Amino acid sequence: MTKTAGKGPDHVAIIMDGNGRWAQARGKARLFGHHAGARRVKEIVRACPGLGVKYLTIFAFSTENWKRTQSEVAGLMSLFRRYIQREAQELLAEGVRVRFIGDRIRLDDKLVQMMDELELLTSNNDKVHLTVALNYGGRDEVARATRRLAHDVKAGKLDPKNVDEETLPKYLDTYVLPDPDLVIRTSGEARISNFLLWQSAYSEYEFIDTLWPDFTKRIFAEIVENFAGRERRFGAVLT
Ligand code: FPP
Description:
239 residues; alpha/beta; Undecaprenyl pyrophosphate synthetase; 6-stranded parallel beta sheet; globular; binds farnesyl diphosphate
């Protein structure tokens, strides 16, 4: 069994929460907080290589976020488009490979096209793997995976006897990614809110009070370094 004490996390996943409260505390509209949050995304992505973080997965929009007001949803979608447009060249130059997970069916065509293009543009990069969860829900992901798996069974490509813990994750959106070692949630809520349900079975969790727009690379570095001091047992007793 692997003992990882002393080693930093390869894969960090983040639930970026608190943008709305951050803006409201300043008497501003919630979108103001999302824009500040997007600037932090840039800072945290850039900090990854120096901290030895190879994979960063961020929760940008959940399957439940459609319940927000129409203007907030539209503002977030426009923010995602702008982010892709503005950051694409820099992400490419900095060696970041970008992937998106989640169900694209409900996203508008223009945004989906931009997501596809950014994935293709950065597909030869390998320095940092940034995965953006957009219209993502863990249960929805497992349901979609099961649907695809059922199709393969029906088509005779997969024997139900061979469906096990190794097979199912191959159908998840994250099939090319390792499981996250560490999941961070900002803004004081201690919930996982349907994020990476299958993948985070053995992840360490860090819930911190800081609101996402206040989450600096320094705080990130402290959490990552603190992880290195932890011992992960994966259910086993270490000898
Ligand atoms: C949660 O804060 C945040 C979101 C639902 C959106 C996350 C989006 C960003 C950080 C913007 C940029 C992302 C990318 C990939 C460019 P909240 O609105 O739930 O805050 P609250 O709990 O205080 O209301």
